[in-house]
Design goal:
Strands 1, 2, 3, 4, 5, 6, 7 and 8 form an 8-stranded mixed beta sheet that branches. The protein is built from 5 helices and 8 strands, in the order ββαβββαβαβαβα. The longest helix is centred in the last third of the chain and has 17 residues. It has a single domain, classed as 3-Layer(aba) Sandwich (Rossmann fold). The model has no long low-confidence stretch (mean pLDDT 88). A hairpin with a 4-residue loop joins strand 1 and strand 2. By secondary structure, the protein is α/β, with parallel strands linked by helices.
């Protein structure tokens, strides 16, 4: 959490983490579309020719003021591809909250496990443990036919029992589960900061 006392602004950094093509960018794009134009900044996306995020997506969103301070969310996604480990670690620096986006497709089960371990390593690089940071899991792509049952995903990815949500980020116009996931991580951040 960054306080700018001169501009009376609080900035919260939230990072979406998960394997390649799990829907991290789709989550952020939906949030951008669903946010009033005057309350959001420009969505900055760096992509490769294969349509995959190369470095990050970044979207600042304004929230109602808290104790006279304007609140802004900076939403980032990390590149899911294995060979961008250094970029993922750098983007995690200073994160106030993390959303892990799991790909529910059966064939992506192992990729979710690998990405979860990588996320824990990225956090430990900054002397954080998963238990010490606001954290939410999203089981994305629930609208597809070949999905792993949520109970299996939960057993493998969520032994801590953190809040988790089923989602279909690409399903328009509602994108079920996307807003709920973001609201929960923001709630956790604000609850911890008020203690």
């Amino acid at each position: 959490m960054f306080f700018n006392h001169a501009s009376r602004e609080i900035i919260l950094k939230i990072v979406y983490y998960g394997p390649g093509l799990c829907g991290k960018t789709t989550n952020i794009k939906y949030i951008s579309e669903a946010t009033r134009p005057e309350a959001r900044g420009k969505l900055i996306t760096l992509e490769t020719t294969a349509e995959r995020t190369l470095f990050f997506d970044f979207l600042p969103i304004s929230l109602p003021p808290i104790r006279g301070y304007k609140t802004r969310l900076h939403l980032y996604t990390v590149p899911g591809q294995v060979f961008y480990a250094a970029s993922r670690r750098l983007i995690m620096k200073g994160a106030d909250g993390v959303i892990f986006v799991a790909d529910s497709q059966e064939e992506r089960f192992e990729a979710n496990l690998v990405s979860m371990e990588d996320m824990k390593e990225s956090l430990s690089a900054y002397n954080f443990k998963l238990e010490e940071i606001p954290f939410v899991i999203q089981y994305n792509k629930r609208d597809l036919p070949n999905v792993t049952p949520v109970e299996e995903l939960r057993a493998a990815l969520n032994p801590m029992g953190v809040p988790d949500f089923e989602a279909a980020a690409a399903q328009r116009p509602q994108a079920p589960g996307v807003e709920e996931t973001l609201k929960e991580v923001v709630r956790q951040i604000m609850t911890r900061k008020q203690r």
